[in-house]
Amino acid sequence: MNPYSRAVTQDDSQPAAKAMLHAIGLSAEQLKQPFVGIASTGYDGNPCNMHLNDLAGHIKQAVNQYPMNGLIFNTIGISDGIAMGTNGMHYSLPSRDLIADSMETVVAGMHYDALVTVVGCDKNMPGAMMAMLRLNRPALLVYGGTIAAGCHAGRKLDVVSAFEAWGQKVTGQIDEPEYQQVIQKACPGAGACGGMYTANTMASAIEAMGMSLPHSSSNPAISQDKLDEMSQVAQAMQRLLELDLKPRDIVTKAALTNAFKLVTVLGGSTNAVLHFLAIADAAGIDFTLDDFQAISEQTPYLADLKPSGRYLMEDLHRVGGVPAVLRYMLDQGWLDGDCMTVTGQTLATNLERVKPLDASQDVLRMRQQPIKSTGHIQILKGNLAPEGAVAKITGKEGEYFHGPAVTFDSEQALNQGIAAGRVKAGDVVVIRYVGPKGGPGMPEMLKPTAAIIGAGLGDSVALITDGRFSGGTHGFVVGHVTPEAQVGGQLALVADGDLITIDAQNKQLTLHVEAHELAQRRAAWQAPKSAHQRGALGKYARVVSSASTGCLTDLPPAEGSDAGESAATAKPDKRIELNLIAEDVAANFSQQPLASKGAPS
After folding, report:
1. Closest CA to 99 of 131, 72, 71
2. What angle do CA 575, 495, 570 make, to 5 degrees?
3. Residue among 204, 212, 216, 470 flagged as catalytic
4. Radius of gyration (C-alpha) of the chain in whole angstroms
5. pTM for this entry
6. Contact 50, 43 (CB under 8 A)
7. Is residue 464 a contact partner of residue 496, using CB atoms and an 8 Å limit?
8. pLDDT of 196-208, one tens digit each?
9. What angle separates helix 52-63 from helix 224-243, to the nearest 10 degrees?
10. How far apart are CA 40 and CA 119, in angstroms?
11. What is the C-alpha to C-alpha distance for residues 347 and 338, in angstroms, rounded to an integer?
């Protein structure tokens, strides 16, 4: 049970290592026991993470009751909610890979035999999963849990309520005192953002994947259920070590498919696509954008959860939590119950003890009355996104939008444009140069989408971007447009007034501009110079892959590529020109009347 730590604890030629381990309080007998790294992303500056070090301490105490040595270490985190709408948001997605790298580094460098990750905010979960899969030692993930709802004037609040209140204030719908009341009451304490946003989406998916204990994703942060979970973690880790059951034994393509089906049923974040691609890569599994689309076409959207619905994660916990949803899905024949989990048992065996959903609850609809009969996450392609784009279409926005472009070269420019009244009903808002290289870091667009909702335009405009959206985003939105503008993607060539069609039914994203006009624009185009040539963001921009592959930073360079080329000097991808030539030009010029919703006439 200690195949890694024995290299420093049982090798007679390593006296200094043993001396230093004695210094931290371990006896000679304890040096024979497995070392379990407990990686906490806890820090004081974020409600999602503020309690995680305490949870890690509880886990250590529980682990040490067994013949194991719990050893806590920490890694970084970035609060998406605090960084949102600022330059700090550029660091959010890169933090996922830093978390993965740092966890891998400590566990491998310190010869730990197993790993427990204690995580809370959006990028913590996928970063931890990437590390666990790379290391492939007995491991499990503990989610810090969801925040309780805020309340003002009899209305439940969460962090997105605060973003949307800004849009309401700048358009005169609420006054300054009301605005301040929403801000002060939206987030009452510890825990991750309360809706089916990215943190709860990924935690739920990882539970469905089999890498966390049942109920871990839906146990609230401040609850006895969450504390009770900590002792169960120690029992599970002992069993994982005894069985030598490792992450790549658990995370299979069937497990990933189960997990994304749950994301679809729950109406989860579009960020799941990026993170699933990265997790699949770390596991050595072939999982592509086509797999997401196939799952989405076969799986209904059922959960009435925020941002598009009424309820929060605490409400899902009240009716049985994620295990109750998984039990329902298994009973419907939607899941592969033979997948192994960190309990040492299959998913189906775990769910045998779960009480079925009560038909009287309305947090999750039954399959006969879905919110949408197919999934809300749709993969679009077309001349504006030849490598793919990710749309969040819940059905409430409609599945078709055709209108003139209004373009912005940064999120800040759009925020200013909304305040100045540049965005009108019927527009297709374009935010570009905010992809993984162009951002750099592919920042989320929650502030502008929340402002659009708050300004009363949520039902009458669409937004497309090569950046990302928060799990809290709702409205008619399309992100992850690839290739991104910074490397010469078609999004860079869009001009104000160009007609754009978003057709979710036919999975198409089309720019209606003649080929010769686009060729002239391309000849005149130059990639903007990034302000981030050095440091963490400069490094990230040089190495990160396309959003269509998960924004990976550990891929080998392509054969014949110039590893030193910066995003600022990147040349247009030749494939973009070929795709343009290959487009059916006639199809691009169906000049339809402007319409924000509904099927084309």
Report:
1. 131
2. 40
3. 470
4. 24
5. 0.91
6. yes
7. no
8. 999 999 999 999 9
9. 50
10. 6
11. 6
